[in-house]
Amino acid sequence: MKNSNYFFANQADVDAAQNAAEVVQNDVVNAGRINEAARDAEEGYEEQARNGLGL
Question: What's the pTM?
Answer without folding.
Answer: 0.64
